[in-house]
Amino acid sequence: MSMNTLLENISMALTSLRGNTLRSLLTMMGIIIGVAAVVLLVSLGQFVQTGIRAQFASLRVDQISVFIFPDESGRFRPLRMGDVRRITEQLAPISTFRVMPQYDETLNILHGSREVSSTVSGVTTDYLFMNPSTIVRRGRFFNQEEVDSIARVAVIGTGVAQRLFGTTDPIGQGIRLNQTSYQVIGLASAGAAGGISGTGDNFILIPLTTAQTRLSGERLVPDERPTTSVVFQPTSPNPDLNYITSRITDILRELRGIDSFSGELDDFFVLFLGSFLNTFTSIINVFTIFLGVTAGISLLVGGIGVMNIMMVTVTERTREVGLRKALGAENRDIVLQFLVEALAITLIGGVVGVAIAFTITLIAAALGFNVVIQPTSILLAVAVSSSVGIFFGIYPAQRAARLNPIEALRYE
Length: 412
Known about the structure:
There is one protein chain. This protein is α+β, with helices and mostly antiparallel strands. It folds into 2 domains: 3-55 and 278-410, no CATH class; 70-266, no CATH class. It has 13 helices and 12 strands. It has helices at residues 3-19, 21-57, 81-91, 127-130, 144-148, 158-165, 208-215, 241-255, 273-316, 318-326, 331-366, 375-401, 405-410; strands at 64-68, 79-80, 97-111, 114-123, 135-139, 153-157, 174-177, 180-189, 203-207, 226-227, 229-234, 268-272. It has a 6-stranded mixed beta barrel. A two-stranded antiparallel sheet has the order 2-10. A hairpin with a 2-residue loop joins β3 and β4. α9 crosses α11. The chain starts with a helix and ends with a helix.
């Protein structure tokens, strides 16, 4: 097939579409709506997936956290520092770790006549590394010397600072926890991570040793000091985090005497955020595919409309087909003529659909929704619309090619 023949067929197709403008537009509507829907819904799915990943990006998805809660009888058994050490030792053949025990309590905090309730967390100097979204806005974080000396210092969240101090600078001020005075040395915000236990900026951080002795009321040897949660950060290359999570669960059941085979429930929870991210990503991928398939149904309906109108076109132009065949046109020339016309309808509809989708995303962006059309979704939509044109245009084109030229010339 020569280039001249192809250009001639394209010219004939465009002339035919211009001659029946309203009918052509109505035929394209199904394709336009279908393509716009596919592009928008696929982009929406990718937008949601990007948003979820952005939320997880503020957290360390390679961390494994252990949380302790009351058992079935309501008894709370904190995890002891000796248990944390034994877990780390048993995991040593699998990976090396950065470990951060934590001790949390919800207390009333006093400053002068003001009082607020907040989560007070005893943490180590690794806290900022393990929670990169938490930022010290003013002052400083406590150091290892203050942890070792059980110092009474505190880093407070901006929410607590506003409620306790108003517009007064909190750095260097004193607060009271459990009737004991602490000096505020830092002001912090939790960022996207939401702070301690999802409390936003209403948190207070003090040295772990201080919390374990002064808040718990227990003056214990180091191995007996309590923790309410522990974060394990693998430092070995390419650790199998799912397996490590399973191992930590088994070790904890052994240390705490929990027989899961007899139906005894755990009084702890092991959280691996990476598994949640993978689960969310899988769900969003399935959801995006579902939306794309749902939108693709309108493309199918549009394709049926294209086939229907092409059948009408073949009937209307029967004498034209007969005349072309009488002048020497071969069957493949007739097939190409009508196939190009069907393809032109779907391609133009696809381009208009993409333009509509792009316009909608601009409106969404102006309203604060950062939905971006992905090039892959445009290519997918154009490829699908082209395929629809070819698939649903073949039968009418072949029917036109099979017409007997003599009978076609007699057609009224």
